[in-house]
Design a protein that fits this description.
This protein has helices at residues 5-19, 25-30, 32-40, 60-69, 79-85, 136-144, 149-161, 167-176, 183-194, 200-212, 253-268, 278-283, 285-298; strands at 22-23, 45-47, 50-52, 75-77, 96-101, 112-117, 218-219, 222-225, 228-231, 234-236, 241-246, 272-277. With 303 residues, it is α+β, with helices and mostly antiparallel strands. It has three domains: 1-70, no CATH class; 75-194, no CATH class; 200-298, Endonuclease, Chain A (3-Layer(aba) Sandwich), CATH 3.40.960. Strands 7-10-11-12 form a four-stranded mixed sheet, sandwiched between helices. It starts with a helix and ends in a 5-residue tail after the last helix.
Length: 303
């Protein structure tokens, strides 16, 4: 009789955890006599439904295994915790989040947030990941759907930009988890990211253009100069206008020099350059729209 793949994966996970000093509930039962003796002598300690094979503070890896083994049923590291494990940069560290099947009530584990989910299928998990975790697409939907609008857009943009998932994969998750909080916002953000928006200021900028009914630009437009190829934030080729949204990194001396040279090259090539500060997009949208309208009209737009 062929072994059940799920059972083999569970055995493999328990072996990894044991090598790191954590006994799963199953292994606790199998080593009952030894466990009782070591707990009584305080050489080992209980954590959730697991036993840690020392009496000191838990390591990060041990805490992960205790978190996923303590609930009954299927579990997975989720939300920002899963994004961090997937290698997404810029995700703030916080409370470890673990998804459990609906109706499961795990014991309290210090520093762990358990969230019950009616949807926790194999399609939501990274195959053979140890400890189990949700895919980057599922993690970003779970995180962004509960975040502020700006934070939600940032999570989607950064995860796609860093190539940890794709808009198509995120849409599949949205379709499967219906209803999802902020579904419309997330789908609009995906469309903008596919169009080339790569940061929160660029996403905000896109929203401003739509609200004001201004012409849609080409995002991440390519331009070539003598020493190679580079990209612009936005460009309106019909009106010989390019736009650059400058964040705080543009204050760096080396970046400032590169920006000046790029602007000179663009103007020599016939483009008009409109430089917009990212904080203007956030705090002074009326200024940004006024500058854009006048620049577009100067290039022939009749709106």
């Amino acid at each position: 009789m062929r072994p059940d793949p799920a059972q083999l994966e569970q055995l493999y996970a328990e072996r990894i955890a044991e090598e790191l000093g954590v006994l799963s509930p199953t292994r606790v039962g199998e080593r009952r006599t030894e466990v009782r003796r070591k707990l009584r002598s305080q050489r080992w300690q209980r954590a959730g439904r697991c036993v840690v094979m020392h009496s000191g503070p838990l390591t990060d890896d041990q805490r992960l295994w205790v978190a996923v083994f303590s609930p009954l049923g299927r579990t997975a590291v989720a939300r920002e915790s899963a994004l961090t494990m997937a290698g997404v940069r810029g995700v703030p560290s916080g409370e470890l989040c673990v998804l459990t099947e609906w109706g499961r009530r795990p014991p309290a584990v210090t520093g762990v947030l358990y969230v019950q989910s009616r949807h926790l299928a194999a399609a939501d998990l990274v195959a053979m990941a140890q400890p189990p975790r949700t895919t980057a697409a599922r993690a970003v939907v779970d995180s962004a759907s509960r975040a502020t609008p700006d934070r939600a857009r940032t999570l989607v943009a950064m995860t796609v930009q860093q190539r940890k998932t794709t808009p198509a994969e995120i849409r599949k998750v949205l379709d499967r988890l219906v209803p999802v909080r902020q579904d419309v916002l997330l789908r609009l953000t995906l469309a903008d990211v596919e169009g080339g928006a790569q940061s929160l200021p660029e996403l905000r900028f896109t929203g401003l253009l739509r609200q004001a009914h201004l012409p849609e630009p080409t995002r991440q437009a390519a331009r070539r100069r003598a020493d190679g190829r580079y990209y612009l934030d936005v460009a309106w080729d019909d009106y010989d206008l390019v736009g650059e949204i400058d964040g705080s990194h543009h204050r760096d001396a080396g970046q400032w020099e590169a920006d000046v040279l790029r602007q000179d090259e663009l103007m020599i090539g016939g483009d008009r350059v409109l430089r917009l500060l990212s904080w203007w997009v956030r705090d002074r949208p009326e200024l940004v729209l006024d500058l854009l309208r006048r620049a577009l009209r100067a290039g022939g737009w009749e709106g």
